[in-house]
Every structure is written in structure tokens, then in C-alpha cells.
């Protein structure tokens, strides 16, 4: 999977959230969007809904059951929450390619 | 409606009851199904296995489109022992089945419910908790943890319209309860305020109350059947 495709899947999942205009405006640079952390526009419950939707999209794409486990993401320190879309995209690529 | 621990005991009785009420019931146990009714679907799942639970819940979501009600019932009963005599493996069994099992099932089902912004989660505790029942240190400690977990989950999920409640059944005569002996059952009944066993209809009445549309403001509550605590 290429990074561009991983980011498309992330964008598609963000688009399913209520008030998704936060992420679909022209000036939003998706790679830099903070998905989890104090500066994230997503609250905790929104993040869960986002991840659940994204897991399904990744599983369809890979044609196998895949799960996103936050503390398995390299470059993500659970004690300093700051998960960007770019970091998550890299993890998705690794997850799909190694599955 | 999803119910865990449906191969025997209260889980099986509750599953059969709600099938007769017209619910589509999806159940699981570590062994094969013991329910043959139409409207019941079974999977063999060890609820203390995180990966099995994830896979099972995703399959339910894909096959049935969502989950409205979860009755997190799977549990374990073993002969009562004073704490000073309780082996570590007994404690571990309760930790795995009651705490890890309930945690994994509630967590995965919650994810499905969050997307629909609706759900009813019911967990099963025990009168052993408010009774501080001798010989149940490991069992009751883990059943107490289920109450705490459910209350926290109730607060976390309230913003998305999901309620989480607990009930503790009075003595219900299952194979497991019978295996504990008549003396044990009589001593337990003596400690209850209402000194009789309960029926499956009475248990399901509590569940029906929790899942009714009018119970949407009822969350984080514990109903102890047959006991003033």
C-alpha cells in the first residue's frame, strides 16, 4: 500500500464523523492533522469511532481482518499523545504490507 | 442481542427466553451450542482471548449490521474456599473470565455501538459482592470489579446514547449452583432478604427494564435481586 492510499482511507474515515468539515476544507493538510492528543480536534469517543471505521476500510483493502492498536504504532509515545495522520498512515502501510 | 456464556446456566436460559420474545440472539461459549432454536446464532469463543473476541464481534457486525444489546454474562463458578486456601489458579480463572472477558467483550461491542450512537450494555455481577460472602474472595473480588468497570464505561459512553448497567441475580438454580450442594444453597438463601430462588422470567424482567426505550436515562446502576444491601 502507498502512503497516498493510506491517507485516502484516513480521510474517508474522518469524513464519516459528524461535523467533518473540520477535515474537508481546502486548507486542511491531512498529513499534519493530529488525530489523538491534546491538540486533536477529535474527542476520545470520536477517535474510537474513527479508528473502528478505519479498521474496516483497511481490512477490506487488505482482504483480511486487521486491527489498529494504538500502542503498536512506531513513533507514537503513549505518554506524549500526538498521533498525526502521517504517522498513522505509515503504520497502516506496515500493517497491511506485513499481514 | 448478544449474550456471552450461553451454553448452560443463566446465559442459556436468558438466551432462550429472548429468542421466544422474538429477539435475534447471538451467543457464544467455549463449547458448541446447546440451543437449537431458530433466531439463535452461536459461536465458539473464549471471552478471555482478546483476539477471539475482536474477531467474533467484527463477524457479528458484518453479518447482522450492528449490536443493540449486550448481556455480558459469561462467568465461572468454582467450589467455595476460604481465602487462605484459595489456589492461585482459581484466582487466575476468575480474573481471566470475569475481568478480562467482560473487559474485552464490552470494549469491542462498545466500538460497534458508538458508531450507531445507541446501545444497551448489561453486565452480570453477584450478590456475593454486597453480602461479602465467606468463601468467595476471588469470585466476589472479580465480580465487584465488573461493577466498577461498568460504572466507568457508563460515564464514558453516556454522551453517545449508550447505557451500561449491572444486575446481580438472586440464587438461580443452575447446574453450577447445584454442584455447590444443598447446604450451600440453603445458607445463601438464608442471607438473601427474599429467601427464595428466582426464575428466568424474573431475571429477564430486570434485563427488559434496562433495555426498554424508556430506560435511556438509567445508566451506571446496579440491581441486586432479592437483597437489601
- State the order of secondary-structure elements of chain B, H for helix, E for strand: EHEEHEHEHHEHHHE
Major sheet: arrangement of strands of chain A: 1-2
CATH architecture of chain A: Orthogonal Bundle
Q: What is the 3D shape of chain A?
A: globular
Q: Compute the gyration radius of chain B: what is it? A: 17 Å
Helical stretch tally of chain B: 8
What level of helicity do the residues of chain A show?
Answer: 40-55%
CATH architecture identity of chain B? 3-Layer(aba) Sandwich
Q: Report the average pLDDT across residues of chain B.
A: 95
Q: Which residues of chain A form runs of ≥5 with pLDDT under 50?
A: none
Number of strands of chain B: 7
- Major β-sheet strand ordering of chain B: 3-2-1-4-5-6-7
> What value does the Rg of chain A take, in angstroms?
13 Å
Kindly name the structural category of chain B. Answer: alpha/beta
Average pLDDT over all residues of chain A = 89
CATH superfamily of chain B: NAD(P)-binding Rossmann-like Domain
CATH class of chain B: Alpha Beta
Q: Name the chain pair with the biggest interface and residue counts per chain.
A: A-B, 10 and 12 residues
Structural class of chain A: mainly alpha
| Strand composition percent of chain B | 5-15%
Low-confidence stretches of chain B: none
